[in-house]
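Subject: Transcriptional regulator structure
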Amino acid sequence: MASPKYIKTCSIWRSLEIVGDKPSLLLLESYWLGTRRFSAFQKQTGLLKTVVSDRLGKLVAAGCFEKVLYSERPKRFEYRGTQKFYDLYPIALSMLHWEQKWGATDGKIQLSLVHKNCGQTTQPHAVCGDCKIEVDARDVSWSEGPGVGLMPAEYSRRRRKETPVNAKKTPLFDEIADLIGDRWSTLIMRSVFTNLNSYQDICEDTAMATNVLAERLTRLCATGFLQKKDATYRLTEKGRDIYPILLALMEWGDKWYADPEGPPLILTHKPCGNALKSAIICPQCGENVTKGDIRFEFTQQTETADL
Ligand SMILES: [Zn+2]
Ligand SMILES: [Zn+2]
């Protein structure tokens, strides 16, 4: 094997180390819907016991969950979200926003979101924290920050068989979890958002094995995130709409995996000229939405859950 390839340091990459995996996303989703115990995670996600055990262990090791003893005799544990977990909230809401706009509706659990503070049915989405304009990739320019550098793309150690995920529909994120839960696809999207459009440029930027890259590009075109035009890969509207999710992943990575020198990438919001820091708002009342402010109402069931 030749010397390791290097890719640009990126907080999105670091975040994907944790959430760029579909079983992990399903477990996080399940927690948001109220699941706390091992057997309940298994039941709700339909994942194999060994997969649930492995991914919960990884989420604990990553500091997103704590395993807490809740009964001495018999000894029983449950999982509790940490601050790091709750900081994933903007990612979850941005994924949900995308899913409600673009995800297939066939056979999916229908739900509406209610902003508890104003009492209205709402679709929270990401805006610039300063000027409150909805985040759009075309309004953002970027430059290298103090933490920019290179890191080895250690694909060979991480390469693993795709974990079979059962066909059960996930309650909230379905189609979007297929994308974000596959780190290769998300890294390709990151490249295209930085105006790298040719196969060669994307290949160099991601340092992916060519067979994996070719397969993912084909899949991203087939699922409508990209379209191929004159040997270049372009974002479709559906693909461009994942930008707030990438931004939320980047902000989470910047917060929890920052380089001591500072962030690798600095974003400027062109409409207001300020450094872009996103916020999630309720478009009905214009207020910021934070943890615990949203209630789900499942329209085909009577259940509700707080998110
Ligand atoms: Zn702005
Ligand atoms: Zn509201």
